């Protein structure tokens, strides 16, 4: 009898989860596990994960535990590092191997290396991009150095993702693990701010797979892909962009499923430049994940990929930026929205990040750390890739993006509604 452990990471779902499906196919008994890291403080002096982001992840885990129970399985919750939990657990239940998704970021790679160093057999599967790596016409190290070249080559070769997998049948829990499974400890969720563009913890915006699938379904049913391109740079409201990112980031939604359903929508309701643009943006997501694979730790150099000198920093200005007290009404509105709700639209992220880097002359890594703490959709590869891009230390062919905040306010908040909405914390 084969006993395996499936360790959920940023793939908190049953649908389209090839690593989980492989574990289910190999196991007679399977223990689903999630290990939450212990709280940490960043070198910039604030908690690495905000209460709101912890709560969103908690709601995703609750949804996962419920879905597993409905199949007669369950989810074991632990906290610490993987290496502090798994060796003893594997020996306690006689598990012969650990299955999990592969994540290219350095800390997540280190976690698996530490498990292997303990003598555990770890099978990790790459599964979080739309496009399978072996469908691409280049090896990891030869990824095109600009997004446009990447997209053009993908489109010229008509590369498409494989169809998403259905949820697998879960093998029973190992007998020795049954008494270990306890409900997830309750957590107080912060209140919803009525101004929020992603109003978690309203039930429709909970982190679970069920909420993610329902959100995607209503987004398509309401025909919103046909207005996406025109509205995606909005600053306020639920519908101006897809709002899929928090679920994609914790993995309660698979990008391949999104694309499959988008294609079904286009077959029924027609293809438009606007619906195409969702694919275009999802390709950015793939690009940053593949860039992480290509460059590994080099993406974390203070001077980015060109390994320039460390950037300047101004701690007092950084504090004012985080607190929404720079004195620039648009920037302050954005920073208040971020801290209060955990969400910020793409345009406002760009404007706020550019302001920190180019106007306040602060270290982009401090800004990236604040986004990490706050964003419900925090995804290390996306955050790092976007910050480096804006700082001109990544793969931007124009060598960085400096946004004029007054021009941006005039273009994207001409009536001042957004600045007024967030004029108070
Ligand atoms: C400084 C900065 C930091 C960012 N940090 C993150 C992060 O931690 N996690 C994250 O998911 N996104 C991040 N983004 C990218 C982008 O802002 C969000 O993905 C998007 O705003 C999420 O809202 P949405 O799902 O409604 O997006 P939509 O506009 O509806 O886009 C659909 C999907 O396309 C992908 N996408 C869109 N824009 C980008 C982009 N610029 N880069 C990569 N993928 C994109 C996302 O998966 C998104 O869910 C960051 C952008 C900037 C400028």
From TrEMBL:
Q: Which SUPFAM superfamilies did the record assign?
A: Cryptochrome/photolyase FAD-binding domain, Cryptochrome/photolyase, N-terminal domain
Looking up Pfam families in the UniProt record yields:
DNA_photolyase, FAD_binding_7
Keyword Flavoprotein present in the record's keywords: the answer is yes
The Swiss-Prot or TrEMBL record describes its family as follows:
Belongs to the DNA photolyase class-1 family.
Q: Where is the Photolyase/cryptochrome alpha/beta domain?
A: 2-130
**What does this protein need as cofactor?**
(6R)-5,10-methylene-5,6,7,8-tetrahydrofolate; FAD
Keywords annotated in UniProt: Chromophore, FAD, Flavoprotein
Q: Which residues form the signal peptide?
A: none
Physiological role: May have a photoreceptor function.
Q: Which GO terms describe its molecular function?
A: DNA binding; DNA photolyase activity; FAD binding
- Give the organism the record lists: Aquitalea magnusonii
GO BP annotations, alphabetical order = photoreactive repair
Query: Could you confirm whether the keyword Flavoprotein appears in this record?
Result: yes
Which Gene3D superfamilies does the UniProt record give? Answer: 1.25.40.80, DNA Cyclobutane Dipyrimidine Photolyase, subunit A, domain 3, HUPs
Q: How is the cofactor bound?
A: Binds 1 5,10-methenyltetrahydrofolate (MTHF) per subunit.
Q: Where does FAD bind?
A: 228, 241-245, 281-288, 377-379
For this entry, the protein name equals Cryptochrome DASH
């Amino acid at each position: 009898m084969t006993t395996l452990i499936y360790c959920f990471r940023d793939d908190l779902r049953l649908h389209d989860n090839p690593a989980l499906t492989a574990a289910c196919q190999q196991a007679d008994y399977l223990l689903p596990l999630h290990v939450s890291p212990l709280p940490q403080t960043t070198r910039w002096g604030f908690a690495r994960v905000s209460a709101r982001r912890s709560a969103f992840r908690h709601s995703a885990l609750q949804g996962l535990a419920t879905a597993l129970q409905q199949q007669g399985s369950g989810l074991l919750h632990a906290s610490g590092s993987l290496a502090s939990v798994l060796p003893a657990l594997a020996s306690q239940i006689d598990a012969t191997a650990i299955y999990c998704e592969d994540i290219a970021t350095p800390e997540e790679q280190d976690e698996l290396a530490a498990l292997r160093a303990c003598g555990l057999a770890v099978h990790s599967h790459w599964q979080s991009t739309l496009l399978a790596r072996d469908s691409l016409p280049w090896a990891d190290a030869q990824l095109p150095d600009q997004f446009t070249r990447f997209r053009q080559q993908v489109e010229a070769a008509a590369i498409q993702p494989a169809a998403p997998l259905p949820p697998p049948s879960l093998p029973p829990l190992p007998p020795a693990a049954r008494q270990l499974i306890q409900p997830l400890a309750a957590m107080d969720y912060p209140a919803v701010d009525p101004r929020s563009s992603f109003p978690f913890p309203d039930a429709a915006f909970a982190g679970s797979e069920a909420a993610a699938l329902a959100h995607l379904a209503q987004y398509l049913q309401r025909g919103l892909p046909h207005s996406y391109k025109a509205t995606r740079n909005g600053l306020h409201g639920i519908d101006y962009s897809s709002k899929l990112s928090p679920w994609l980031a914790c993995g309660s939604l698979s990008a391949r499923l999104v694309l499959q359903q988008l294609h079904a929508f286009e077959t029924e309701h027609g293809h438009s430049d606007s619906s195409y643009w969702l694919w275009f943006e999802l390709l950015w997501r793939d690009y940053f994940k593949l860039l992480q694979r290509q460059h590994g730790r080099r993406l974390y150099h203070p001077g980015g990929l060109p390994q320039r000198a460390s950037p300047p920093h101004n701690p007092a200005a950084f504090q004012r930026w985080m607190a929404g007290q720079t004195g620039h009404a648009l920037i302050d509105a954005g920073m208040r929205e971020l801290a209060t709700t955990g969400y910020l639209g793409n345009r406002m992220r760009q404007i706020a990040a550019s302001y920190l880097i180019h106007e306040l002359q602060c270290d982009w890594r401090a800004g990236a750390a604040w986004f990490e703490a706050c964003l419900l959709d925090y995804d290390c590869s996306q955050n790092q890739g976007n910050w480096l891009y804006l700082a001109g230390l990544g793969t931007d062919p124009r060598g960085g993006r400096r946004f004029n905040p007054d021009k941006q306010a005039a273009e994207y908040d001409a009536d001042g509604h957004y600045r007024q909405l967030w004029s108070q914390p």
